[in-house]
Design brief:
Helix content: 40-55%
CATH architecture of the largest domain: Up-down Bundle
Radius of gyration: 27 Å
Number of domains: 2
CATH class of the largest domain: Mainly Alpha
Number of strands: 8
Shape: elongated
Structural class: alpha+beta
Order of helices and strands: HHHHEHHHEHHHEEHEEEEH
CATH superfamily of the largest domain: Cation efflux protein transmembrane domain
Length: 397
């Protein structure tokens, strides 16, 4: 198929069909005075946006960008947020129009045309389901860690995240070092059961599958409304169209709200909801011998299943740190965090010969202080409001 093959070909084909049919539904919806069809056309427009985001992700993710050290992983999250906000605004507009039609009844013209267009829309969505059905239930490999809640998995699917592909050139070597643990280092037992995670290569296509599936419901609503108007003489039949339009709005909002909320939280770099920062710090001190204290611990989600962490680890000396470094990496791997940056801090500092100088205290908040200038105190990594966990803190608790 030339340069467009596989995923790109399916995405482009569905993009062309969906974009064309969006225009058809919008025009016919206003010509026949059907709010349900207009609402469905806007839902179709959201599919167009999702397909564009998915296509750009598949096309751009293999490329390297010198000014984007993480690639374009966040572009999908940003696109999802814009798409969600746009849909919420359209839903508000449709709701206002539907309420007005309850107050002032408006007849629907040419119900046969509505049935025809709605049926074509349903056929289009069935074609889309066949194009992407293999990705609707695909799963990839597993890692240790705590399984994320449903809303996180929902965003992972709907954002169409392709983060691992975008980060292939920028990620740390954490995944590789997990497989290169020397035999002399005892592996840390993980009490958490392995969690199934969607293969990042399939997440884009799975998200498109879910969009097409939800849009098929909209087409069914349009056909149902048109059939009632066409085939019945019920005196309240013209209330069906605005009523089903509101039902369609509720369906759209039900799928958009988790997307809107979670994409906003990701862009704000909040801790993923299934990660308990304090509990992880305590477990790190309890399970990894040689770690005296942990502070300045940050966890955030880049996109999809890519969770990134950074921490200051206090240990006795450089030699001790080199012994526990792989254990720390493996600990975070078992917690489901596969990209980590660790800053070691030492209690003992070597001098010339065999002398040893006392460095930072195990109870000191930070070994590397900002220069004596109050202006930068709040901007430094070890600010005044940091949390500090040490072995003594764990013993007291």
């Amino acid at each position: 198929m030339g340069k467009f093959s596989g995923k790109k070909c399916r995405l482009l084909s569905m993009l062309w069909l969906t974009g064309t049919f969006f225009v058809v539904e919008l025009i016919v919806g206003y010509v026949t005075n059907s709010m349900a069809l207009v609402a469905d056309s806007f839902h179709m427009l959201s599919d167009v946006a999702a397909l564009v985001i998915a296509f750009l992700s598949v096309k751009m993710s293999p490329k390297k960008w010198s000014k984007n050290t993480f690639g374009w992983a966040r572009a999908e999250v940003l696109g999802a947020l814009v798409n969600a906000v746009f849909l919420v605004a359209l839903c508000f507009s449709i709701t206002v129009e539907a309420v007005q039609r309850f107050i002032k009844i408006e007849t629907i013209h040419n119900a046969k045309l509505l049935v025809a267009v709605g049926t074509l829309g349903l056929i289009l969505n069935i074609v889309g389901l066949f194009l992407f059905h293999e990705h609707g239930s695909s799963h990839g490999h597993t890692h240790g860690g705590v399984p994320p809640p449903a809303n996180v998995r929902h965003l992972t699917e709907l954002v169409n995240s392709n983060a691992d592909m975008a980060l292939g050139h920028a990620a740390t070597d954490t995944e590789e070092t997990d497989e290169m643990v020397p035999p002399k280092i005892d592996k840390i037992p993980s009490k958490q059961a392995p969690r199934p995670t969607s293969d990042p290569g399939h997440l884009n296509m799975k998200g498109v599958f879910l969009h097409v599936l939800s849009d098929a419901l909209g087409s069914l609503i349009v056909v149902s409304s048109a059939l009632v108007v066409w085939l019945t003489n019920w005196e309240y039949k013209y209330y069906i169209d605005p009523a089903l339009s509101i039902v369609l709005v509720i369906l759209i909002l039900a799928s958009v709200w988790p997307l809107l909320r979670e994409s906003a939280l990701i862009l704000l770099q909040t801790v993923p909801t299934h990660i308990q920062v304090d509990a992880i710090q305590r477990r790190l001190l309890e399970k990894v011998d040689g770690v005296l204290a942990v502070h300045e611990f940050h966890v955030w989600q880049l996109a999809g299943d890519r969770i990134i962490a950074s921490a200051h680890i206090r240990c006795r000396n450089l030699s001790e740190y080199m012994k526990i470094a792989e254990k720390v990496k493996e600990f975070f791997h078992n917690e489901g965090i596969h990209s980590t940056t660790i800053q070691p801090e030492f209690v003992e500092l070597p001098l010339d010969g065999n002398e040893i100088m006392s460095g930072a205290s195990a109870e000191a908040p930070c070994a590397l202080h900002c220069p004596p200038n109050d202006l930068c105190h709040n901007a430094t990594c070890c600010g005044p409001n940091q949390q500090f966990f040490s072995l003594d803190t764990i013993r007291v608790r």
